[in-house]
């Protein structure tokens, strides 16, 4: 084997793996958007076979030999080639640590579990979902131990979504948030509450769909490479940088639920759409970590989307689409209403301030589940207790409690903290961006392209070329500091509530 | 290798191949329904890799050895097992006759060609599509010659869609139709024309969607295993017998276009949904041939869907959904309007009588293209000439001419005759069914289940267990005779037009 041949073969291998992931991704998208309800079994069988094939490709002797050969010739590789080898090896080491049959069986299980979760949520039937979640928790623990037998399981899981992030950092991070957020919430409680009832009247779905298209346009989404669909739980998926899909969920009596889902998912989509062409079809394609990804989705959702400038920008369109509902209201009323801070039940509807507490509830439950301190069957009770403790709300049922999110049912344990982390990353990015751009001036003008360009230059174009920590630090020129986020929140909510 | 091991390995092989076809099918469905426009290239790359893998599975040494071993032990196999081996061998012999790289390159080409066709149709730009179609024609010829070097290419192509059907039969069949249909059309021309203008006013799409759901319910479609989507050109696809998808295309100013697409595709779907469970995930799953398939879609579309009994059944629903549009109209007016016979431009909108002439135009063009008598660049001219000759209509543009159908762009040459053949099969099935059931009495009652059950018993449940010819003859107890169809047409149109 010579170097050129090896490099070519390695690229082909990555492309092949990409094709399987592409196919499985489309099948998953289909399953959650338009597939008939009774089709899970057949899909599970096919996904099992395809994921088995993908597993075989990633852990094949050919792959191992190529990695070994290329690592031995690392000095002759370009920086990108070397990174491809490093990242491929990192992923295949994890995959190979899991026995093939267990790997495949778990993919089939997840396919089924997603379907069961959806039904369980719709019928408020936690018991039907519990055995599926039990197996997911068990499997997460088992796989983490296969991969890092000596490691702490929860640390291993956190690292999978945000490389280098562990419980020590997470605990410190959440403590820093709690210290600032809890008193802020208490102060707001004493103030006159904002009236947001005009956002909860009748909003015809077809008009909401028009509104989604408008928002995606404002957010500079290239619709030639990104569509929007409808799912139980909104998400973004990408098959390559030119094929990105976002989803939302429309509610007839709620304008902002879908609106902020669309903005959030558009943030994810923007990241994917603007990755560097040179990484396309390699294992370096796409966003580098969930923390960085959520920094973008939550940046657009909150720092941009819930700013007064953005509300002023879009309010004329809101009035055009929903003239009766907005009668007598101003852009400032709209701004106040979308920033109403109030402890509530549903994470994706939570305001920026109380949001982190929703994440803390989930993070602590995940830790307890993984450490075996609680069982899956305890979840409804523990969820209710923690929601009462942190947010002071009573959980009326599991649909609005521990069944509300799709993450656990799709196998993701250790993902939730990245939402809060992303929010905090975003605030530090903003501070940095404001040195170069009049951010809110641009938003007010409806000219978001320079903001996207700035993020593309600093973050998006690099795809997975750098790990999240060095990438983050290269952008802000410093270490991560959660006080940018708490300062941002204090300033914003003090102004809104006159604290 | 022992027999049990071989049978098991052979089943696994079929299942594996099924999984790849499932994935590629979902990707195709996604491409034609919701994918953003600019995503063809990435999809083509992945489809190329997956079809290469499927090719490798179907033509692998393992597959060859299994087939050889099982053929040598044919006497020890069940009838179904023996048929699986026979059908698998038949398909893999064809696949293996094509060099792997050409096979894959063609799949990639078809993916692109489908996209180009759609744009060409929408912009009436035949020139942009012509080079893609040229390659498709060339490749069809080349592949047919690889497979049957001594065979007549057009016969080889016809045989792929309807085993045992060749030009000799097709020519005789179309001659029989022409002999009866052309004088009928001439007689109708002398009569007072039917007013169907009330079917071409404004029909809101959301109401048409409700109507589709209603029609699928009437047609006994199990919505738990069948959804409806929207595409440029309606079609049915199935990933297994429990996962069937139909599509339609809604036109704001035309009720019956989508209505009869939905009924037509529901006929295809009913066939797939009612195949025997024992064939699931084997190469015997699904409908046996395009002729038999079209016999079902056209049976429901026309023999059922354009009957007076059906119009009486559904008319109250039509009035409920479209009260203004139906004001002053009766079920009989509706029946007459949906059976208005008039030479027209668009095949899928054509009435039952002139429909076969649309097929003849296509069949003759296909023959001429394959034999090299005309070139792809001649298509617009030849199309217009033949439409004038057979139907007496002037073709105003290619969008309503040779670009109207998706078939050629998706690689299907020799498929069109099965529509006419299916229509004729259907009339002979009806004659037979009427001996057992009061077909139109049941339709009038809205009780179509006994009709579906009859067809399931005689046709659907057998999936690909028998070739189309013996299957057909087992149902009707005789040979195929096109006069059942021409008699049916004569009777129906004589009554409608008082001939």
Structure description:
- The structure is a homodimer of 499-residue chains.
- The first copy, chain A, has 499 residues and is mostly helical.
- The first copy, chain A, is 65% helix and 3% strand.
- Chain A has 20 helices and three strands.
- Chain A has a three-stranded mixed β-sheet with strand order 1-3-2, sandwiched between helices.
- In chain A, a hairpin with a 2-residue loop joins strand 2 and strand 3.
- The longest helix of chain A has 31 residues.
- Chain A is globular, with a radius of gyration of 23 Å.
- Chain A starts with a helix and ends with a helix.
- The relative contact order of chain A is 0.12.
- The mean pLDDT of chain A is 97.
- Chains A and B meet through helix 1, helix 2, strand 1 and strand 3 of A and helix 1, helix 2, strand 1 and strand 3 of B.
Biggest interface and which pair forms it?
A-B, 44 and 43 residues
Largest sheet of chain A: 3 strands, mixed
> How many whole angstroms does the radius of gyration of chain A measure?
23 Å
What is the tally of helical segments of chain A?
20
For the termini of chain A, the CA-CA separation is 69 Å
SSE string of chain A: HHHHHHHHHEEEHHHHHHHHHHH
Backbone structural class of chain A: mainly alpha
Q: Report the helical percentage of chain A.
A: 55-70%
Globally, the shape of chain A reads globular
Mean pLDDT of chain A equals 97
Strand residues, percent of chain A: under 5%
- Walk across the major sheet of chain A and give the strand order: 1-3-2
Let me know the number of strands of chain A: 3
Q: What kind of oligomer do you see?
A: homodimer
- Uncertain segments of chain A are none
């Amino acid at each position: 084997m010579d170097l050129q041949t090896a490099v070519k073969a390695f690229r082909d291998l990555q492309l092949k793996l990409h094709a399987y992931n592409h196919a499985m991704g489309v099948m998953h998208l289909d399953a959650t958007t338009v597939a008939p309800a009774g089709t899970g079994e057949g899909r599970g069988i096919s996904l099992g076979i395809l994921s088995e094939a993908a597993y075989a490709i990633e852990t094949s002797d050919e792959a191992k030999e190529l990695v070994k050969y290329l690592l031995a010739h690392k000095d002759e590789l370009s920086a990108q080639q070397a990174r491809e080898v490093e990242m491929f090896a990192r992923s295949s080491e994890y995959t190979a640590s899991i026995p093939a049959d267990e790997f495949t069986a778990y993919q089939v299980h997840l396919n089924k579990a997603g379907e069961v979760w959806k039904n369980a949520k719709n019928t408020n039937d936690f018991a039907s979902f519990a055995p599926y979640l039990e197996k997911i928790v068990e499997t997460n623990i088992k796989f983490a131990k296969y991969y890092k037998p000596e490691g702490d399981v929860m640390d291993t899981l956190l690292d999978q979504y945000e490389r280098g992030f562990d419980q020590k950092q997470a605990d410190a991070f959440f403590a820093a948030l709690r210290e600032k957020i809890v008193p802020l919430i208490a102060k707001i409680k004493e103030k006159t509450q904002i009236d947001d009832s005009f956002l909860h009247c009748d909003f015809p779905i077809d008009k909401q769909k028009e509104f989604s298209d408008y928002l995606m346009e404002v957010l500079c989404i290239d619709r030639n490479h990104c569509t929007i669909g409808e799912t139980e739980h909104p998400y973004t998926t990408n098959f390559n940088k030119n094929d990105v899909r976002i989803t939302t969920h429309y509610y007839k009596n709620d304008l902002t639920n879908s609106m902020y889902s669309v903005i959030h998912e558009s943030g994810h989509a923007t990241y994917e759409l603007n990755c560097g062409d040179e990484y396309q079809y390699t294992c370096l394609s796409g966003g580098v970590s969930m923390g960085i990804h959520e920094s973008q989705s939550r940046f657009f959702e909150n720092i941009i989307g819930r700013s007064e400038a953005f509300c002023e920008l879009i309010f004329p369109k809101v009035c055009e689409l929903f003239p009766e509902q907005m009668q007598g209201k101003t852009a400032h009323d709209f701004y106040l209403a979308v920033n109403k801070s109030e402890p509530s039940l549903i994470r994706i509807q939570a305001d920026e301030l109380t949001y982190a507490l929703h994440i803390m509830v989930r993070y602590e439950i995940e830790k307890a589940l993984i450490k075996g301190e609680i069982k899956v069957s305890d979840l409804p009770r523990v969820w209710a207790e923690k929601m009462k403790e942190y947010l002071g709300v009573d959980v009326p049922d599991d649909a609005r409690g521990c069944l509300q999110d799709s993450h656990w049912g799709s196998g993701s344990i250790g993902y939730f903290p990245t939402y809060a982390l992303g929010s905090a990353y975003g605030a530090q990015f903003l501070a940095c961006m404001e040195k170069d751009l009049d951010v809110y001036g641009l938003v007010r003008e409806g000219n978001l392209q320079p903001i996207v360009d700035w993020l593309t230059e600093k973050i998006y174009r690099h795809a997975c070329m750098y790990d999240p920590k060095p990438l983050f630090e290269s952008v802000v020129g410093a270490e991560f500091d959660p006080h940018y986020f708490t300062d941002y929140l204090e300033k914003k909510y003090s102004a809104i509530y006159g604290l």
